[in-house]
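User: Can you predict the 3D structure for this chain?
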Amino acid sequence: MGALPELRDSSGIWGRQVVKDFKGSIWTRWFKEMKRPISFFMFFMPNTPAVTFGGVYQNVTKSYFGAVEMILATAWCGIFYYLCGGQPVMVNGATVPTVAYVMIIYKMSEMFLS
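Assistant: Here is the predicted structure, written as structure tokens:
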């Protein structure tokens, strides 16, 4: 067939061996072994910035909006984005510009209400 005899497997073409090795090693081992760590990572990945920036929100808003509210808001935004946006892996949450914006709005509302 044009390939060297040592590159051929019993089926005849050496390219099938690559597919067979992929299915035997990557498919069975990697997916079975990495299922729990990936699930663990995907659970804690969105919660880490939510807790971090939730603490910042708690300091900025005098405990009106904290880590628990930030986790709930991130969860609801993630569910909504999953259902409407079509990208379930998108992490929606607070970032530094959002915290700065909320801090300015909170300070302005305190100033106008007092």
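The helical segments are 15-33, 35-60, 67-85, 96-113. Residues 57 and 74 are 14 Å apart (CA to CA).
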